[in-house]
Amino acid sequence: MTDKQLTEQETKALVERLQQLPDAIEAPDRWSQIRAKLEAEATAQSSTTADNEQAKQTTHQKFWQPMAVAAALVLAVTFYTISPWQQNQSSLTTIANNSTVSQSSTNHVASFGMTLASLELANSQYYAKLGYQLEQSQAGLDPAVRQSLKDLRNAQQQYVVALEQQPNDLQLQQQLIEMYQKERHLLQKIIA
Amino acid sequence: MQAQPIEQQDADNQAELVALAKQGDMQAFESLYRLFNHKIYLLCVRMTGRPALAEEHMQDAFIKAWQALPSFEGNSKFSTWVYRIAVNVVLNEQRKNHIEIYADQDWQQAFEDELSQTHHPQQIDLEKAIVKLPAQARNVLLLHDLMGMTHEEVGDTLGIASGTCKAHLSRARVLLKEQLER
Fold first, then answer.
1. Residue extents of the structural domains in chain B
2. Do the Cβ atoms of A5 and B63 come within 8 Å?
3. pLDDT in tens, A138-173
4. What is the ipTM score, two decimals?
5. Which of A24, A90, A123, B75 is deepest in the core (most CB within 10 A)?
6. By C-alpha distance, which of B110, B106, B137, B127 is closest to B180?
7. Predicted TM-score of the model (pTM)
8. Domains identified in chain A, total number
């Protein structure tokens, strides 16, 4: 390093000269390149984020898939065991058989009685076995749907009362069956 | 209603542009680029002595500024903040690739051409003398005497003690004066 020092006056003069220099010059326009780079980086970043998300999802899937399959199997077996369709299917067969084979009113009443009982049981099993899930769904249930369920249950009650007075009324029995079936369809929709 | 002074209006506009750019508004950032690119470019030309290199550094500085915008808290002026980014871009490059300036005839001509629109001949001579200084002395002189940083700030930026910074500055001024007197 040089030992030479500028005097205060020389320093002041030099600094003044320096500070009088322009602070800008005509610059080449690089905006389009800058923009292109920024956009390319943004695209790369978003695709990296998407890749990471996908990788996360894959890991998530890897972990959950066997569990989901096992759970689905258990559910399917349970569902099959308690299946209202199974019971309803036999009930409907009973209805069909009843309408074609038997004309005797005693058999008729007995068959409908069994059908109604099995439908009622099926729907109550739906409520009982899937109660928690239903409760969860009902927490955010559309008030209109909730009202429909309530109306169906009221209607069922009215038919049950009416049937107590006229146990042989075929039309009442069929309407009650329809109410149970409608309720079941609605429950299935809510739970789905 | 009393009109705002132009400087205040400019500052308000800049603050608005910065706020928009921080939200990802590319047009606002372009406006900021157009406001400061000429200054940043000159800073890079002074630090490198090479217009082509300065152009690259200016571009990198704005790209880095965009990336760092979310962390800009507005404690300093936006211009000061971008200047610092540009200085760091050039310094990093200098650390990686130590490029000496060969002040031959071609270089002189290219350098003069670059400044001829804005500088008068004496100022061009002064700019050339700055560029020919040893790198560390040149950087200290630019940051202290032209950008107005304190010795502590220059020391922090360059990674040297403030005492060393003072010594570099004194040397830079002497060398500069000697070159101008030749």
1. 1-99
2. no
3. 556 676 777 777 778 888 888 888 888 888 888 888
4. 0.86
5. A123
6. B127
7. 0.60
8. 1
